[in-house]
Structure formats: structure tokens, C-alpha cells
Amino acid sequence: MIKKVAVLPGDGVGKEVTKGAVDVLKVVAQRFNHQFEFTYGLIGGAAIDEEGTPLPIHTVETCKQADAVLLGAVGGTKWDELPSHMRPERGLLAIRKELDLYANLRPVTYYDSLVDSSPLKKEYIEGVDFIIVRELTGGLYFGKPSERRTEGSKEAVVDTLFYKRDEIERIIRQAFEMAVNRRKKVTSVDKANVLESSCLWREIAAEVAKEYPDVELEHMLVDSAAMQLIRNPQHFDVVVTENMFGDILSDEASMLTGSLGMLPSASLTVNGPSLYEPVHGSAPDIAGQNKANPIAAILSAAMMLRYSFGLEEEAKVIEQAVENVLNAGHRTADLANGLHYLSTEKMVEAIVDVIADDSAIVNIMTAYS
Ligand code: NAD
To answer: What is the CATH number of domain 1-104+263-369?
Structure first.
């Protein structure tokens, strides 16, 4: 298989973890006889420094010509004082809109070997395996007007929560499609006791559910969902929600696994390249120290193989290699509880070695046969 991958490392640890994910894709290509061609582009602060804009047009073109996009992270203190339309994060919002990346999938998976890294007790997190399906191109983050104003002589501000019916319908349908191949349960999260947009969201969820009689639908208010994610995370299978609720709940959910550095994501579109990125940001506090956990980026690359290229076996090999390395006791600093830890590069090497090793691959494949 020959595939073009656009790589946008971005800023801070984005650069370090993306390099790790590319190394892993290269070893997968070698082992399975694929050809992945990597083309690099600027986004975020790096693009502001070089080109004066967080998303240069040729970065968009590079992405549109690719079969999939791998992104690191954007942002950093250096650009914090810029006006909001010029900030690195604008680049991220703009690429989502440009590529119509409407569905953000964030799996949250429990690893036996990381039980001590989670702030929650083992009995609460054991077996946790759910996926958050977040709407990504609408809602408060994109609605207009979004501005400061003067009302009379007083300072005021407005953001707009706007959705069209078809935007809600397609993300909810995406969640049901995922649930069909999982434990067949969708939790639709809203704030229907207060927000009109949530009332429509709830109505549409109930309509779509009729097309999937084997899938159970439950509605949950976002405040209750925030609580249940900590109190009873095993309860969830597929969680679907609008843009801002999904943003907040998925960061909360990341702590179940012990670190933001473990959480991958996929942002899917209908036509054209989908985008894969770790959930975490550019982590300015540890950037440039070879200390970041590359696993979220590496698992994002696995999602790319699965969702964009249909390479399920190769995706599973990466996921199993990560698990093997964790089971062997290897940790990056975020997971090490102050004990010995591996650098970013060493962690990547450990995962690459497992994938490159014939006998390890055989063991992995036997486990899945
Ligand atoms: P962050 O995710 O960058 O960091 C939060 C905490 O998690 C930090 O303590 C950091 O060290 C740690 N962390 C994050 N990734 C890690 C990794 N791979 N390994 C080990 N530890 C890791 O969030 P923040 O500090 O709120 O934001 C920093 C910058 O990143 C800001 O400019 C923000 O706007 C941006 N940001 C970008 C994205 C993105 O590009 N998708 C997402 C969130 C935040």
C-alpha cells in the first residue's frame, strides 16, 4: 500500500512526539511492505514565526493532497500575548474547518500495568474502555458573533452556540455506527434542562436511535456525566456530545488512564484526509527536554492506520507493542511516579524494537488470531 501522510509537528512537545509516531509508522511500513510518504507542513506558533500566520495556505494544500494528516500540538507561552485571531490555536481550529473534520474520536482505554499511575482506585478504573465522540466543527467554538462589545457604556461579550440539524445528526449517527461494533450503548451528553441547542440535540439523538434498534441510547446531562466519569467510568461505551462539552469531558477522562500523554484522537471527515493527533497540548513546561510521553501520538498513528487506511492488523500491532512495553515496566516521566523513567526517544525505541522484532510480532499476531 502506498499512502501520503502530511505531518504537522506544530510546537513544543508536538515536534518530539510526532517524530516518534513517524518512526513507528516507518517500522510498520517496513514490516508489512507498505510505503508511507511523509510531507511536512507548518502550523501554530512555528507557522506564525516563519510565515506570520497560524495556518499557511500551503499547509492546507499539503494536507488536502495527503491521504491522512498527523499532527503534534500547537501553542506556547511565546505566542500567548498575540490577539486571539493570530494565536497558534487558531491554526488548529482553521484546519478542522478546512478539512471538515466533524467527528473527533477519543478512546479511553485502561492499561492493567498503569493502574498505579491513575489517581483513581483500581476498582473504579479496571476494564474501562469507552470512546468519546465529540462534534468538532460547530458549537460555541465557531458560532458568530463571538466578540467583545460595548452595551451603553459598559463592556460586554458574546459567544454563540450554533448548530444546524444535519451537523448534529451526522455526529450522532457516527456514534451509533461505532457502538454497533462495540458494546452497543450510546450515552448522549447535553444540557437539555437549560440550553435550546441541547433540546434539539436530544430530539435528534432519539430519532437516530430508531435506526439502530440493537443499540441502547441514554441521555445524560453534562454535569452528571462529569461526575459519572469519575464515579463509574465502567458505565460508558460510546459517549457523544457537542464541541465544548466534549473538549472538557475528554480531558477529564484522560486522567483515568493516568496521563494526558496516553490519549490519542482521530478527527474524521467524510471526503478527503482525516487528521490524527494526541489529545494533549504542546506542554511548554517539559518541551525540549526529551521528556514527553510519545504514546498518545503513536496510538494516534495506529488510529490513522485503522480509520484512514483500513490496516486493522497493523494498528493492532502498534497498540499491542505499546502494551508490551508498558507491561515490561517501561515508563516516561508522567507515568513513573518519581521512579526511573525513559526519555521520549528511548520510549519510541522500545516500541519500535517490539514492532521490528519478528518473534514479538508473531506473539502479537497469535494473541489476536
Ligand atoms: P497541555 O496538554 O500542553 O499540558 C497539560 C499538562 O500535561 C502539562 O503538565 C504537561 O506537561 C502534561 N503533558 C501534556 N502532554 C504530555 C505528554 N505527551 N507527556 C507528558 N506530559 C504531558 O495543556 P496546557 O498546559 O493547558 O496547554 C499548553 C499549550 O498547549 C497552550 O498553548 C494550549 O493552548 C495548547 N494546547 C494545544 C492543544 C492542541 O494542539 N491540540 C491542546 C491543548 C492545549
So the answer is: 3.40.718.10
